[in-house]
Amino acid sequence: MREAFFMGTITATITHELQNVLAIINECRGLMGDVLAMNPGVKLKRMDLVTKSLNMITEQIERGKHLSGKLNRFAHTAEDFATGADLNRIVSEIVYLAERIARLRKCEFVPGLAQEPVTVAGNGVTLLMAVFEAMRTCLDAVPEGLIHMQVARDNARGSVHFFLPEGSSVDKKSLSAAFWSLAGELTVNVEFDEAGKGFDLYFPLAGK
Amino acid sequence: MDKKEWNVLLVDDEEEFVQTLAERLELRGIKTTVANDGETALKLVAANRPHVIVLDVMMPGLKGVDVLRRVKDIDPTIPVILLTGKGATRDGIDGMHYGAFDYMMKPINIDALTEKMAEAVAAAAGDSQANS
Known about the structure:
By secondary structure, chain A is of the alpha+beta class. Chain A contains seven helices and five strands.
């Protein structure tokens, strides 16, 4: 956990620096736009390329803002999850952070949250890793489409159910293997549904 | 008050950012003064009493929230708009507890900043009329 805090602190500092870089580019882009707007009578050759480039800079600033925001949020993960591990928050966070990984595989994770917090036992960062490993196994099994996730709880356990699209099924051995590296750090049970269209990750509730 | 009568103090240690922002505001007829650290900003506040301050929260030396608190000691009616980075919204929220008018995230939209400054100046003018 100390390592996660250290990495997070350094990464957060760098993302602030990146935001400042984006802010400077944003103002310079704005200043160029202001000057052009002040001189509407001035005809530049290939003004269309200038306009196109300014628009592209604006789009890339927005993209940079989005990415640096994600990186910053990831950097704060260790501290944010140090005091508790609500499965609703864990699922929301990891779906947000892994959005691009899923998109590159033509998939999208659709999170469904429980109405109440589902606080489970274990270190939040390790729980994030566990849910992420399950998501990665889904991506290996699903050629494309929506993968729904649903957080729930019963008397003693919190769970995340993964629903795979029609025609896809997860390889049980791969999924079990994905959790080997977390053995000893986390208690997690995997249960597959009979039709093979999904599976549940079960975690003991905190304090039970 | 017309924006051309405003005297705005911009405080940020990122010189390129704050200078360019000042140039853009001046193109809109808004008079600005720039400080690159908290100590300089406080001297300018004591000397000039700006109508509004735009203050970065993450600066070396005196942090933005410390500058804000000391500005409020000098003159509690001067509105302060904080600039934060994404992920540093807690600093903005802390600043609200110490009397910041509002906070905005970098990179900023200049029209949104100008509107926010107008709200801040109008609110401060209303407060000072109410107090007189």
